[in-house]
Amino acid sequence: MIDSHCHLNFKKLSENFKNIIINSKKNNITSILSINTKPEDFVDHLNLIKDYNSIYLSYGLHPSNVKSLNQIKNYNFDEYCNNEKVIGIGETGIDLYQNDKYLKEQTLVFETHIEASIKHSLPLIIHQRNSENEIMDILKNYKSNSLKIVFHCFTGSNKLLNFCLDNDYYISISGIITFKNASELRDIVKNIPLKSILVETDSPYLAPEPMRGKVNEPSFVKYTGEYLSNFFNVSFEEFEKITDNNFFNLFTKAKRDNYL
After folding, report:
1. Global pTM?
2. Among 99, 111, 119, 220, which residue's CB has the most CB atoms within a 10 Å radius?
3. Is the dihedral of CA 38, 39, 41, 46 positive or negative?
């Protein structure tokens, strides 16, 4: 199984990095995509994972870190997106929950990421919080382009889900799906075609049952996968195979090495 979205350079994971990898191998995690949230952290992030065969990175600026219109101009997509380890752009998007003062700035930064995604033919990893309509309106402006997109940690409405399915965008499901209070989310995603699903931890956050309350880590994606295989009434082996294939169909720069 693959963890399609985590943050290995965040302190709670990086300070225990060797054990994180050991635990991932024990749970048969074969690939990990670690998501960049501050471009100024990218080089250290790359150095953390560069010696591991199937750990990959994205390059981007998280919307919650956007504070000014000029901020994104300081970052060099052309330089870093050509690195063999970089297989996606983001995470990017709009967050009006934590950062509602900077909609104009977030919009500009989001559009810059979209343009980088198109230019470098790399999938876009979208963060959405309290911003469905804003994100959909922006993406509609790029509809003529062959954008490849995943909405990470999906907690959206039926409207957003249908928008994703209509445009062949992927949705990534996190451990939230296992939470007792996530019945509305379960009802929304229950009829998603399996060909549209990725699985993630978003670690170090959102540990799934039965690991609630612990620091989340990539190895825990197994528990979300097991829950979802039961939820969609397919064997774990079949679910694992489908979602792994989905990952490689989206992130075409990643290699099927089958070991970390």
Report:
1. 0.97
2. 220
3. positive
